[in-house]
Amino acid sequence: MLNFSAIPAELHAPAQRYWDQFEAAIQSQNLPHPRDLLPASISADDFFLQLTRAFVASEFIAKTSAQRPQYLIELVQSGALFEAQTDAHLDAFAAAVNACNTDAELDKCLRQQRQMAMIRIIWRDLNRVADMREVTAELSRFADKSILLAAEFHYRALEKMYGTPIGRESNLAQPFMVLGMGKLGAGELNVSSDIDLIFTFPEGGETNHASRAISNQEFFIKLGQKLIKSLDTVTADGFVFRVDMRLRPHGQSGALAMSFVGMEDYYQTQGREWERYAMIKARTVAMAGGEGQIAARKLLGKMLQPFTYRQYIDFSAIESLREMKGLIARQVQRKGMNLDVKLGEGGIREVEFVVQVFQLIRGGRDARLRKRKVPVLLPFLEQENYLPPGAGSALLEAYIFLRNTEHAIQGYQDKQTQSLPVDPIGQLRLAWAMGFENWDSFFATLSGYRQRVNTEFKSVIAAPDEEDTVDQKALAFWMGLWEGSLQGEDAVHALTARNIEGPEALLKNLADLREGRAVLSMQASSRTRLDAFIPRLLQVIVHEAFGPKLPITIAETFARIVPLIEAVARRSAYLVLLVENPTAVQQLVKLCAASPWIADQIAQYPVLLDELLTPESLYTPPDKELLRDELRRDVLRLNWDDLEGHMEALRYFRSAHALRVSASEVAGVLPLMKVSDYLTWIAEVVLEHVLNLGWEHVVERHGRPRRSDGSVDTAPDFVIVGYGKLGGIELGHGSDLDLVFIHNADSNLHTDGERSIDNTTFYTRLGQRIIHVLNTYTPSGKLYEVDMRLRPSGNSGLLVSSLTAFEKYQANEAWTWEHQALVRARVVAGSAALGEQFEQVRQRILTQERDLDKLRADVSEMRRKMREQLGSEGKSKPNPLNASKTPALFNLKQDSGGIVDIEFMVQYAALAWAAKEPKVIRYTDNIRILGSLEEAGLLDAQSVAHLIAAYKAYRSTGHRLALQRQEAVLEGDNHFLTERAQVTALWQQLIDHN
Asked: What pLDDT, on the 0 to 100 scale, is given for residue 56?
């Protein structure tokens, strides 16, 4: 009988209901009652006290016992429920698995064993008969054994089908090796954790089957896939462990299993700082089959050690971990995860970071720091004076409390969550499970531990706060102005006395905001935050105006920031961010004053305020590899089927870096060419990920496209070709993407999935998916505007062309202007092999012998039409003072002597002379094509210099106007007179010389 004597009445009913169901089930199934099976080591009274506590604190135990009463009965009868995990328990587990003959039997056995193991471990945890270290160690050992048994089973099965994988160099049978990362690697797995794994093997080679030999990598990839299926798939019996493979080399796009050589090459040449952090806890958790397992494990450890631990004291790790924590903190803030005991402030992750910063800095020199368990390292750090006296023990105490809290949260429903409950019953249940009478006393204790953790964390790793330099007297003045206690003539005189230009305009802006709907409808707490922010904002604006000097007035600067304030009025966490981070306010003022386009972007996407917290990264744009790494890190925890999550991550990534590049541009940090490079890299990295995202989606639905040799495409045999500004590496702010999709699959074959479709349809759907991800509006806007009109036959043509069809069209049907466009075309994402084939096609088409007279005529006619339709001729506005005189306009792009004239001349020259000088088309950007034309002696140095100078000047002005939210049209007849004359003269010389 359940014993509710010490349990709050609100928690009785669910436990009693499940107990009644359990008793009914054992009666209907004619099973013995557990009270009749108790071992001598536990009394009936103690058993029912433990049972009641387990049923109250864990719906998982109660529900599973009611649905499958034999699990609890077996655990009681064997005595395992009341004992620590032993080798005998794991041997019995192994015997049960080894008795399986089929995949289905294996999967069922693993899940049944897992359910009983979790009942036993959570039971012992909640009843505090096992401490945190024992609980995590037992979970980790069970996971290790599950991985090993499943891997050995599938190794044997695959060996029968394909033979044994043999090393090319050693001629030895190769073992399958599994690296456990994160908490599994550290032996600190929590009660409902996923497991992060990496699969590897020592050597390449192939299996020794007489007729069905395959490569070692293919063998181990198949083994990895089967292992994941056995552990991760949810069936009627549940699952074993959620498996996450995204920490492997190259992430989700990488091979599922990789040889030691491949692993070593990756970590030596491409390994990132965050991967060093992850590798600290890496441990070989299972090795199946093969020979020389012990030697292989030692070799793997020796190979990975130099990457993880530097042989010098590496203080750069502090900055890396600080940045990583910053990313997590911003994610927590964006997603409202402050109640998360793992990721929130003062949570488990901060304790781990304190330990790992010392490991990364000094682990290369001090091997004692290479241990994986946090509870082992914290006392050591204090003992060795890495931490001050008392800090290590305080952090350990907090860590144990936080981990126990995490287990109590997860053990309730066997769910992977670290969030504190928000409902009163859930809060009472958690507090009671943790030994407290009520939520308030538990939460106060938890908050105390988190505060201590956060204090120690900040002293070790967090960036120091800026000194408080706020002038309180000045702040009081601006507060009076904002609140309206200082107004009218008094306010004007006070502002004038402070040398504020246009005081009336500033006062009107303040009044309009104060009396506007957004502010009047704010809740009291939000209004308090706004009242704290506005005076600080005004103080910073005035300081910046009288310091470096803003390009516009104080009133105009404030007006540009007003839309942001109105946008965040109902999301006042952003106001707190700004109040508490004066640096962010300073950057906000500078950037909004410099560019209305930037002001619009921040107002539209206030989440971008995160980027203002770290000026060093805001004005230091990364290169393409770092961009790839950052995006990979951003999506690391997203499943491929989480389309919404990927779309939001991509949009934030693009918007954040668009802000960085514009900030760098207005600050003069980036020259024009670098701006275009950066914007182009952003687009390319996004397209690479979108292609992989689309591929995973279509493969999941229809399988993989088959090849003529019987194999299937393991990666997209598909490329995205960038045309126009993307192809020419000349993207600007807000540029759309001109794209063409090409595949190289056999159109007569089909995919290998259950819902098989022909290969052409498969790649068409892939193209549609890519466009959907790029074009769809979400709360974070559209990723890119996509223009597909440059594909063969334009809008009436197929969305995706085969390479053969593309070449045939270009050779036989394409217009001259389509060949002009091809000059700037290049592969920006997709298959490297197909990309090379595309470039060969491009070369063949562009190096054709041409009728130069016809080419000149075609180019000239197309340019004439564009000028008439898009140029400023006939579009000048009348002068109101003199109707007979209209001001002259110069369209930087479309008018005579402008950008398009230069582009058309470059394209004409490339098409005209590529047949005799193919190197003039090896590049796709105008600047380098012009350089190639000069190098080949086809254009003189002076002409090339004039064109490059004009082109850069035009584009620089266009970028500046875009950031000022203005069209690329200049009013007046005195702009770029020399450049326009030089470009026009060269146009006449090259094209219109008849």
From this structure: 95
C-beta of residue 318 within 8 angstroms of C-beta of residue 277: no
pLDDT of residue 72: 95
Longest CA–CA separation in the chain, Å: 112
Q: Report the C-alpha gap between 624 and 630 in whole angstroms.
A: 10
What tens digit of pLDDT does each residue of 22-50 get?
Answer: 999 999 999 999 999 999 999 999 999 99
Q: What SS3 state is found at 709?
A: coil
Bridge partners of residue 737, in order along the sequence: 786
Q: CA nearest 405: which of 375, 449, 437, 373?
A: 449
Name 14's Cβ contacts closer than 8 Å, sequence gap at least 6: 56, 59, 62
| pLDDT given at position 332 | 62
Q: CA-to-CA distance for 962 and 965, rounded, in angstroms?
A: 5
Report the percentage of the chain scoring pLDDT > 70.
94
904's tokens: 């058309």
pTM beyond cutoff 0.70: no
Mean pLDDT of 721-731: 94
Burial class (CB in 10 A: 0-12, 13-18, 19+), 882: exposed
Helix, coil or strand: residue 740: strand
The amino acid sitting at 20 is D
Q: What span, in angstroms and rounded, lies between the C-alpha atoms of 600 and 602?
A: 6
Which of 36, 38, 56 is closest to 46 using CA atoms? 38
Query: How would residue 465 be classed by pLDDT, with cut points 50, 70 and 90?
Result: very low
CB 802 within 8 A of CB 717: no
| Cα angle value 578/581/583 (rounded, 5°) | 105
Nearest to residue 352, comparing CAs of 362, 342, 361?
A: 342
Return d(Cα 768, Cα 135) in angstroms, integer: 49
Residue 336 has pLDDT above 80, yes or no: no
With b for 16 or more beta-carbon neighbours within 10 A and e for fewer, the 342-378 pattern comes to bbbbbbbbbbbbbbbbbbbbbbbebeebeebbbbebb
Cα 554 to chain centroid distance, Å, stands at 38
- Lookup result for tokens 């030691």: 260
d(CA 321, CA 318): 5
Res. 744: pLDDT tops 60: yes
- Choice between 48 and 993, residue whose per-residue pLDDT is larger: 48
Q: Which residue type occupies 529?
A: R
| Distance, CA of 215 to chain centre | 33
C-alpha separations of 239 from 80, 193, 194, 228 in Å = 21, 12, 11, 11
Angle, CA of 974, 977 and 983, to the nearest 5°: 150
Short-list 202, 200, 208, 201, CA closest to 165: 208
Question: Is the pLDDT reported for residue 364 higher than 80?
Answer: no
Place of tokens 């996450």: 244
Residue 806, both tokens: 């593309």
In the structure encoding, which two tokens stand for residue 815, read together?
A: 């217009």
Q: How far is CA 705 from the centre of its chain?
A: 28
| Residues whose CB is less than 8 angstroms from the CB of residue 590 and which lie 6 or more positions away in sequence, other chains included | 544, 548, 550, 667
Range with the lowest mean pLDDT among 760-764, 874-878, 952-956?
A: 874-878
Give the 3-state secondary structure of residue 366: coil
Rg of the chain taking only CA atoms, in angstroms: 34
Reading the block at residue 762, the tokens are 């498969």
Separation CA 627–CA 621 (nearest Å)? 9
CA-nearest of 787, 727, 741 to 921 is 727
Give me the pLDDT at residue 334, please. Answer: 57
Average pLDDT over residues 916-928: 93
| Position 260 pLDDT exceeds 60 | yes
